[in-house]
Write a structure and sequence with these properties.
This protein is α+β, with helices and mostly antiparallel strands. It is 27% helix and 33% strand. The protein is globular and about 80 Å long.
């Protein structure tokens, strides 16, 4: 077995690999750019080597710099993680020439399967069903329009060397095909150093289901079930689960056997993923094979008990698979929520800055990987697990140079319902401050009827949130539970506030029992009866809630028991009440005396400033180009400029017809959030 491994990556996946290597007694080497000098993966590794400036194309994906780090540290093997050089055949070739093991598949398999065009041809030759499309490369925008019309809209424009949603655009018209071609080409070049594109038919109402395969260099191969990855935004997965709520055992077996056969056709050896589109009749079509570890691999580990990183390392060391297909079984259900530094209230645009607070929920071990990989034959009713794969820490920085992922929060339960409920509580318990993030959206999805029923497709977000995400309206029962909790918490805070240091109890100001709680445009008058064990909160209509909690003023997280059911609230202080976040809702909760409530009702509401004649930069980023000139008349939906952030190009469009009166930025300018790009008459 190897004594030292270099991880040619950063962030949460580098930390993930380090954990398994440490468990196996293998020393680790981290590499880092200027931006990652204080990153978590650098702190965790046994050694760390600086490899260059912040941009990935000057550091993490420069093969020569990574090879220098390998030579300097004497690493015997390299785990590439995902992204960066993980599917780069030239990198695998360089390692082979140096006599260093690549913890991934052979160079030939990477070349065959890593290129989407080649992989589709191989799949077709192997009798695998594929999505209709044109396999030839696109020469220019006119060619893209021509091919799109031949296939028929809608179409998907994809980077041949792409992955992670980069270099992908859906086009529904000639204009979108032209724009999509250029943006995909630019993203592909900057992310992968390869701007080749191809076009295929975009299948509407599909489910994205992928099969995890594991093969060794001795001709053995198994599949470890499937992952449902249909909750996607901009072609990037947001929530994954294993197994899929849609597949039956017959379809699972057919997809699995086909995936293994495809992998073995190219002498694959390592962990890999074969992605399929599955229609409503359970017909499945090969999309691509990812010749690397997937971001969502933890859910497979949680239901199988197999540490995929460990297996990759063992295969790279020449070992034979320790399991046969008959020995693979699925136990329980697992869900992964990808926590991104993206502001859901601004169209999920990237957010950067310092994590002024980062407190994930406590990790809990259960299920097949409960104790050092020890297998449990059956999922036990009521058991739940929480796992958080992350590469950040409290006080750390989220940079504009890399993928916006903060963490991958995973839960496991004996069944899907239990796993979802565990995820709801885990998300409610996850404290993040300082940047915009998609945690409220993830919470909203967990309560969405279609997701709960398992009836989602890859169009879920577009169909259910067509106008974007603007928060959650909580139901009446939840509002009452929160109102009762806030009234009780406010009473506790008021009692503490009246206890002036050095004064006796009989000098304390009396704190009343009747309060008016206002939240989400609703007001509830309540009366609190407190005793040694908790509080009984009675509403004006006679409804009651019994509460117990150990919350004290100043705590940012409140764990309460309301009528025997848990309630977790993130708590912030606002004048006259609390800022409460729960289940995707962000609430200002005011707790007032009846007289204060009467007076508050007479106060006028503050009006927001008018920004209708300004184009504001929605996220920190770099201006790529300006599409209009001063004096130009623009139409609704017309592209005004392109801003790049976190490796993604974002086209900003006109919201209505107007005339450009002033342009304040140009290509190459770095802009902050809400900085004015242009003004209109």
């Amino acid at each position: 077995m190897f004594k030292k491994i270099l991880i040619a990556n950063r962030g949460e996946i580098a930390c993930r690999v380090i954990k398994t290597a440490r468990k196996m007694g293998i020393a680790t080497v981290a590499i880092y750019s200027d931006a990652d000098r204080n990153a978590l993966h650098v702190k965790m590794a046994d050694e760390a080597v600086h490899i260059g400036p912040a941009p990935a194309n000057q550091s993490y994906i420069v093969i020569d710099k990574v090879m220098d780090a390998i030579r300097a540290t004497g690493a015997e093997a390299v785990h590439p993680g995902y992204g960066f050089l993980s599917e780069n055949a030239k990198f695998a070739e360089a390692l082979e020439a140096e006599g260093v093991a690549f913890v991934g598949p052979p160079k030939g398999a990477i070349e065959a399967m890593g290129d989407k065009i080649t992989s589709k041809k191989i799949a077709q030759e192997a009798g695998v069903s594929t999505v209709p499309g044109v396999m030839g490369l696109i020469e220019d925008a006119d060619d893209a329009v021509k091919i799109s019309n031949e296939i028929g809209y809608p179409v998907m424009i994809k980077a041949s060397a792409g992955g992670g949603g980069k270099g992908m655009r859906i086009a529904w018209s000639d204009e979108e095909a032209r724009e999509g071609f250029q943006s995909s080409k630019n993203e592909a070049a900057s992310s992968f150093g390869d701007d080749r594109l191809f076009i295929e038919k975009f299948v509407t109402q599909p489910r994205h289901i992928e099969i995890q395969v594991l093969c060794d260099s001795h001709g053995n191969g198994v599949y470890l079930g499937e992952r449902e990855c249909s909750i996607q935004r901009r072609n990037q997965k947001v929530i994954e689960e294993a197994p899929s709520p849609f597949l039956d055992e017959e379809t699972r077996r057919a997809m699995g056997e086909q995936a293994v056969a495809l992998a073995q056709a190219v002498d694959y050896a390592s962990a890999g993923t074969v992605e399929f589109i599955v229609d409503g009749e359970k017909n499945f079509y090969f999309l691509e094979m990812n010749t690397r570890l997937q971001v969502e691999h933890p859910v497979t580990e949680l239901i199988t008990g197999v540490d995929l990183v460990e297996q990759m390392i063992r295969v790279a060391a020449g070992e034979t698979l320790s399991m046969t297909q008959d020995e693979v079984s699925l136990s329980g259900w697992a869900i992964e929520s990808r926590l991104y530094a993206e502001d859901p209230y601004r169209g999920f645009l990237p957010s950067i800055g310092r994590l002024t607070s980062y407190r994930p929920p406590e990790e809990v071990a259960a299920g097949p990987l409960a104790e050092n990989g020890k297998w449990q034959d059956e999922a036990r009713e009521g058991d739940t697990a929480v796992r958080n794969d992350t590469g950040v820490y409290d006080g750390g920085e989220i940079s504009m140079y890399y993928d916006p992922m903060i963490a991958k929060l995973c839960t496991w339960g004996a069944n899907r319902e239990t796993a979802i409920e565990a995820m709801r509580v885990a998300l409610d318990s996850f404290e993040i401050e300082g940047i915009g993030h998609n945690l409220p959206f993830l919470s909203a999805v967990m309560d969405h009827p279609k997701f709960v029923a398992g009836e989602m497709t890859t169009a879920f977000i577009a169909e259910e949130y067509p106008e974007g995400f603007d928060g959650v309206e909580l139901d009446e029962d939840t509002l009452r539970r929160i109102a009762a909790s806030c009234a009780a918490m406010h009473r506790v805070a008021e009692i503490r506030r009246t206890r002036v240091s050095g004064r006796m109890d009989n000098h304390e100001r009396h704190v009343g029992d009747t309060w008016v709680v206002t939240l989400q445009n609703r007001s509830f008058e309540v009366r609190i009866a407190a005793d040694r064990d908790g509080s009984t909160v009675t509403f004006a209509d006679g409804g009651q809630h019994r509460l117990t909690s150990a919350w004290t003023p100043g705590d940012s997280l409140a764990r309460l028991d309301v009528d025997g059911a848990p309630l977790v609230l993130k708590v912030g202080k606002v004048s006259g009440g609390f800022r409460i976040r729960n289940r995707g809702a962000d609430l200002k909760v005011h707790v007032r005396t009846p007289r204060q409530a009467e007076l508050a009702a007479l106060m006028p509401e503050k009006q927001a400033p008018d920004t209708s004649k300004l184009l504001l930069c929605p996220m920190p980023g770099l201006v790529v180009n300006i599409n209009v000139e001063v004096g130009a008349e623009v139409q609704e939906g017309q592209a005004l400029c392109t801003v790049e952030a976190m490796k993604m190009e974002n086209i900003l469009r006109a919201e209505k017809r107007a005339v450009v009166s002033k342009i304040n930025a140009g290509p190459g300018d770095s802009l902050a959030v809400d900085e004015v790009i242009m003004e209109f008459e």
